[in-house]
Amino acid sequence: MLARAFRCARRSVARCNHTQASPQSSARTTSFGFKTVPEEDKESLVKDVFDSVASKYDLMNDATSFGVHRLWKDTFVDSLKPGRKAPVRCIDVAGGTGDIALRILDHAREKYADRETSVEIVDINAQMLAEGQKRFKKTMYHYTPQVSFHEANAQELPPAQFKDNTYDLYTIAFGIRNCTSIPAVLEEAHRVLKPGATFACLEFSKVGNPLLSALYDQYSFSMIPLLGTILAGDRDSYQYLVESIRKFPSQPEFAQMIRDAGFVTGGDHDGGAWTDLWGGIASIHTGVKA
Ligand SMILES: C[S@@+](CC[C@H](N)C(=O)[O-])C[C@H]1O[C@@H](n2cnc3c(N)ncnc32)[C@H](O)[C@@H]1O
Question: Is residue 102 part of a domain?
Fold first, then answer.
């Protein structure tokens, strides 16, 4: 399936190059990892990647990050303190197999004895959601109003289902870089949040220290696709995932995009609009709907 996706990407690149050569054409392009593809193709290419990795996604996350993604996700959710003041209605977009949703519900219950906080998990990919549903069946949240799964595009959440000014907390973890239009995702986040509510994004980011950056590049470009081949039989998807990290905007650029969508953020520094984790390998951005 992935081979098909990448053949398709190559075709798209060819079409795109052709298009760029033509001054009459107005085709818009975007990045798919290091490739440039027509905007309308990215969604299906990304879908093919996650169709391919869905069944091995959790295992591969542990293998490629040595489990560190768990610490980052714990830090992310702890920093948001869901349930501290009162139960919250959350939407976890690009929620995949439910890693963030589960942490939100556990945090609210374990820290604040809150069994009313709820999370709506939204993802464009049915197979990732199916893995999440399988996993939630083993938890106390299964068949409760605290969790639900929805197949939808972060860039255009159906307004009848995801109404304006509805949620207290919007989370998106390692998902926004896969979306074709980051501003469209942010605009939707702003629409569905209540005034005063929080947007929070955990995403791979830019490493400040040049030595750490070189080591991290060396590791990610050599080891991650290799682990993808060995453990999941899929090099291309993991190559894309590494490349897509490098294409994501820097911390100040992303903070500006969040402000452009109408959120108020802290100052343009680590500890303000964002908090770096592990020197910027990942970072948490937050904004409050004005
Ligand atoms: C790397 S996974 C992250 C999953 C989960 N949030 C986590 O942290 O483990 C990225 C997810 O983004 C989803 N995704 C990609 N593009 C999307 C879009 N336009 N709308 C909604 N979900 C999308 C993928 O299907 C995939 O499940």
Answer: yes
Q: Answer whether 193's CB lies under 8 Å from 199's CB.
A: yes
**Strand, helix or coil for residue 120:** strand
User: How close is the Cα of 47 to the center of ligand 1, in Å?
Assistant: 9
What is the CATH classification number for the domain harbouring 283?
3.40.50.150
Prediction pTM value: 0.90
SS3 88: coil
Residue-wise pLDDT tens digits, 142-193: 999 999 999 999 999 999 999 999 999 999 999 999 999 999 999 999 999 9
In a domain, 167, yes or no: yes
Residue that is written with structure tokens 């085709």 in the block: 27
Calculate Rg over the CA atoms of the chain. Answer: 19
Q: Say if 176 falls within a structural domain.
A: yes
CA of residue 61 to ligand 1 center, whole Å: 13
Give the structural domain span for 181.
67-206+248-289
**Binding site per annotation, positions:** 97, 123, 153-154
The verdict on the CB of residue 123 being under 6 Å from ligand 1 is: yes
Atom of ligand 1 nearest to the CA of 47: 25
Closest ligand 1 atom to Cα of 180? 19
pLDDT in tens, 235-282: 999 999 999 999 999 999 999 999 999 999 999 999 999 999 999 999
Task: Evaluate: CB of 124 within 6 angstroms of ligand 1.
Answer: yes
User: What letter would DSSP give residue 56?
Assistant: G
Q: Which amino acid is located at 139 in the chain?
A: T
* Overall domain count for the chain: 1
CA distance 28 to 94: 24
What's the gap in Å between 83 CA and the centre of ligand 1? 24
Q: Which atom of ligand 1 is nearest to the CA of 96?
A: 27
CA nearest neighbour of 56 among 282, 227, 193, 262: 227
